Amino acid sequence: MQANDYPEFVTSPGQVPYPEALALMEQRVAAIRAGTARELIWFLEHPPLYTAGTSANPRDLISPDRFPVYDARRGGQYTYHGPGQRVAYVLLDLSRRGRDVRHFVAQVEDWVIKTLNEFNVVGERRPGRVGVWVVRPDKPVAADGRPCEDKIAAIGLRIRKWVSFHGLSINVEPDLSHFSGIVPCGISEHGVTSLVDLGLPVTMQDVDVALEKTFAQVFGAPSEIDESSVGQSSD
What we know:
single chain, 235 residues, alpha/beta, eight-stranded mixed β-sheet, three-stranded mixed β-sheet, 3 helices, 11 strands, globular, disordered C terminus
């Protein structure tokens, strides 16, 4: 494996303004597409804000004046970002990794699930619900008798000419009350949680180490991928 075959991992200190992050992603996506920059996994935090994906329902923005609201131009609905939440932007060249969008989204989900497993947290998919969920046996069951479930990670991606951007967010220790200004991802019957809310004294650095470790397990490097795989189209 050559060094340039593996993505660059970058962690930004402090809180990165959302417009600045969008601009930097746009620049890097163009450079990856042109072959002048390596793929990038970018770890950061944002100041408190809401973002609207391409499927966002205006009725799900409950408190429009609480925090700035940005059009994210990614898939999904309304999402909260803020301090204590690890955002990982995933800028990968899918033309070198197999042009299969569904498989790529599943890989991102697997990446989150494997990362949570590093802390003995069982993250799960749910049909019809984007993101990663945890069962809460410590909370009362739902009216239909099913166990309570909370969302711990959100996923929202965009692909342009087979280069991905935007990515995922894992709740490490955010202010969970900030989620009340929206209907997160359009789902009102379930709550949100974080690693610290689950009783785990996990730091942002702990999560970064776990994300970098498990990335290799899920994605490998482009040189290890069968490039003959072709799936859904990209804009």
